[in-house]
DNA sequence: AGATAAACGAGACGGTACGTCGGGTCTTAAT
DNA sequence: ATTAAGACCCGACGTACCGTCTCGTTTATCT
């Protein structure tokens, strides 16, 4: 960024044009082929306007993701823990793979070399989802569906890990049935064997 | 690539200089900041020489990974399944993070945009390790340490997933204690409790 | 220019701030490095205000010159023609080079590309001085110090030409001694020798 | 310039294309509107190629002038001093005003802010002409057409000054008749009055 | 041992995109 | 209604790498 632009004088039409152009270009060529130059041209906006409001290409795309992700915001709670986890996992899968090349994975990659972007990514995209995930687990715990000493971090790793596993290796995302299998296994892992249930869980 | 160079006249010293320069630059700036120009300069090699033998930047790094992967020792089998899994997971973690910025980390993350690279990565680096992992599980199964219907793919996902999870989100790799916790959970997930499963745990 | 501002509501403080900033920046970086942006910033004035009142960068500098030119004293007439010419030439030299980099120098050199600026420059700065110069020559002529057919345009060219010559070629201005030499030569050129001209000199 | 390109590997066709494009663009829009971007586009050459071989826009134009000026290289010596001076002055006038806006005046202007360019301009364009001018005067002096103490610097100023005088003030260049008048005056200035010739010139 | 043919270093080249600067126009708020 | 502030579109700047393309010059085989 050049200097503090701090102003409510920002022109909303430019902001929208940039985001729209970015979305289109991402869909057409993928995040990897995206350039500021092209965004500016497509949006009918000067490059300076982009640099004034966004520190990097990744930041523009992050704003884009924000808008898309905001739609599916509210955490589900149907009472059926497995089903709700299935819903949350599906949402992440859809976010990561709307098309063959998702802007989200691009931003994740770029964040590796851009600490500011990485922070924004965590704060705005990742941590809220983790929080909701743990909220749901906590409610299940309160209702006795999970032991009091269930390790939520492990649950997070075990359930979301496979998604990134496949993402990294360029494999297809898990289908719903496999998701169910995963969830079943993980819930079983969180619940110690029944013959020790009383002793272990209440300790 | 320009034309088929097929020749045993290739100069080994140039090959090594390129790989060494690439490794150094990766460690210094990360894979994302790597340029052919810089490799050529550091290696004292002409750009043409690089383009003659490698189709892309990713391919050079892949050769680098090959070297790293070749070091792999034989799969451990001490009789203690949990300990052996721990060893295998640690080896992968060390491969991915010998330094803060590892070429391997970068090439895996970046493989999102290069399907060829991703495939080569799977074939040369990932699948051999998966095979060894499943071998070990199979032996454990034969010795009655795992049920006959244990799902090895799920085991793979649950154990390796967390590593990629952290890789993608640019978090630190799990420490040995946490690895133990993970393995304990996963083994528990693979071993369904002998009875009372429905009522107590997954309901 | 944007639109006719015709208003006596113009704020004098802004006008002065612009002129002062322009003078300072000219002296610091030279006319060629002058930017409207920098003038506005230094003057604490918006760019719009500058564009409203001056059609171009050159016009601002021209106003500056006007101020400098207004200082001009009355034409000297001490009775000594050579001394008076020396005085007039020195005044022009001082106007052009009060500092190493003078706004006037720059605007004259740059006037090549702005006919309007060049015309304004002639009318406001140059021609008044030419008029005074010719006045002085005319008085000398009336007093018999110059022949009745002395060519004043040639005199103008010969006396002022060397100044522009050095200006164009970015050389230092003539010192007083050299000025005397010049004037001596030119007066000699205007006064044809009473006899033997053909035979001795120009043959 | 970026780094030392020192190479006879320079492609002559590119050099010519750049100079040709520069000439055309100068003629079409004038030196002031000339941009490196446009030269590169018109010449079908990358910007880097221009920056590699020329330190600035002015340097390109200077090369252009060099070629044009090299044509009229040899100093005239017909035995008629006045006529030869006329020829030399005309050549300079033509160089400065081939069209309304000459590249030469542009380079002269730019040289004010670019010491390197100014030096190149002096060495390659100005000083050779001054040398030839003084050569001619020296020959005339040896043949007794000028006094032994004739001041060549003054002669230079008086003869070339008027050209720059008019150039600076955006006036038309002197016509041949006026040139003759000027030369006559200057030669007269250089020749002290006949009745003091012996005493003054030999002193 | 000399010839020959490929790989090689060097780096010029046409491109594309970068991130920055300044030009000149336009809008908003405040004085 | 002028002003300060500054966002905005535009065009050019000078730079970094890209991948291609010569140039001689090694260097390693094959006569």
From TrEMBL, chains A, B, C, D:
Residues 12-72 form the HTH tetR-type domain. Residues 35-54 bind DNA. PROSITE patterns: HTH_TETR_2. CDD domains: HTH_XRE. Keywords: DNA-binding, Transcription, Transcription regulation. This is TetR/AcrR family transcriptional regulator. It comes from Actinomadura yumaensis.
